[in-house]
Amino acid sequence: MNIQHTLKQLLATVLIALPVMAMAGVDTETDENYVILAGHDVVAYFTESKPVMGKAMFTAVHNDAIYQFSSAVNRDMFKKAPSQYAPQYGGFCAYGVTLGQKFEVDGKAFEVVDGKLYVNKNLKVYEIWKKEIPANIKLAMVSTLGRQQSYKQALFMAKMNRYLISV
Questions:
Q1: φ and ψ at 83, to 5 degrees?
Q2: CA 100 → CA 47, 89, 95, 121, 142, distances in Å?
Q3: Which are the contacts of 74, defined by CB distance < 8 A and separation ≥ 6?
Q4: Can you list the positions of beta strands (E) in the chain?
Q5: Tag placement on the chain: N or C end, fewer CB within 10 Å?
Q6: pLDDT at 71
Q7: What band does 144 get if pLDDT is binned at 50, 70 and 90?
Q8: CA distance 140 to 150
């Protein structure tokens, strides 16, 4: 009886983990051509501490978004560690996420905090967001966007529990 119970638990873990990981796709803020960050070079935010326009000849795709780079060197750096450079919240406005909203960005308003890139709709919104960066980052973690993903996971887990009880 204990082995059967252990096997059920193992099966439940596998069945829950795989679909949840599949549902964890990142929604990204792109233009109609799937270009993220209004075409700015994501690596340059880190290496040059300023927004630098990318070029269509240097691109990479990550999470269904096309990133443009100012050089092949920056593109290659990104390809080696895309999650190190990719913007938080899929490139949506960091302040908007604290409000549970998805605002597009102009690529010019940004801040690197603890090695993570946060972009904002524009410089005016950035000025508001930067007044309380730590609080805004924490608030974004519990925003509507975060709760929607948690709701999907909870719904899936409830369905799995009903299935396992019936087995």
A1: -70, -20
A2: 30, 11, 9, 14, 9
A3: 41, 43, 44, 47, 58
A4: 55-62, 65-69, 109-113, 116-120
A5: N
A6: 98
A7: very low
A8: 14
Q: What is the CA radius of gyration of the chain?
A: 20
Minimal CA–CA distance to 74: which of 58, 51, 57, 91? 58
User: Residue 133 has which token pair?
Assistant: 């960066």
Rounded Cα distance between 94 and 118, Å, is 6
Q: How far apart are CA 56 and CA 137, in angstroms?
A: 32
Range 80-95 burial, b when 16+ CB lie within 10 A, else e: eeeeebbbebbbbbbb
* Of the candidate ranges 10-14, 56-60, 146-150, 159-163, the one whose mean pLDDT is the lowest: 10-14
Q: Three-class SS of residue 102?
A: coil
115 C-beta neighbours (distance < 10 Å), count? 8
Whole-angstrom distance between the N-terminal and C-terminal Cα of the chain?
14
